[in-house]
Please model this.
Amino acid sequence: MFICQKSLKFTKSEEKSVVWAKKVTDLHEKMAKGEKLDTAMDLHNNEIGRKHFLEVFNQNEEKTIDFIQKSLQNSKIVSHIDEIEIYRNELVYISE
Model:
């Protein structure tokens, strides 16, 4: 979400900011070459952030932080990649 917000000043378009953020974060995940579950979790959580950005891009940073804090409190633990699909609109994490 923050990458989208910061890039908005340059892209001048919410959609372009989301596309750019996706390219950058996906590239980061490909280059990091972590465990498959870690990568799937990161890609999923990045997507949640981009979707939320499109819903509230015009809100202030305080509201964004509030959203993140609430999302983290409601995040779901997963131990297999297949489980991530169950939580399409929620953040996920691997261990406590």
Notes: The radius of gyration is 14 Å. The mean pLDDT is 90. The helical segments are 2-11, 14-32, 36-56, 61-73, 81-84. Residues 2-93 form one domain.
